[in-house]
Specification:
Blueprint (H helix, E strand, L loop, with lengths): L1 H12 L9 E5 L2 E4 H9 L3 H12 L4
Antiparallel strand pairs: 1-2
Length: 61
């Protein structure tokens, strides 16, 4: 899980500002932009873990 988290944080840091506001994933019928996903993942929330799992399943990370 930590490797996926690091991949996300690295990808996020290389994104232009405008792209960070695009929706990247929907978890529990809630859309998450790069920025909102970053907040959840950075703070190690349970939603952040679900986001990472979903991104892994979709082979985005």
């Amino acid at each position: 899980m930590e490797k996926i988290r690091e991949s996300f944080l690295k990808a996020y840091s290389n994104l232009p500002e405008k792209v960070r506001e695009e929706i990247i994933v929907v978890v529990n019928n809630t859309p998450f932009t790069w920025s909102s996903a970053y907040f959840e993942i950075k703070n190690n929330t349970s939603i952040g873990k679900e986001i990472l799992n979903t991104l892994k399943e979709l082979e985005i990370l």
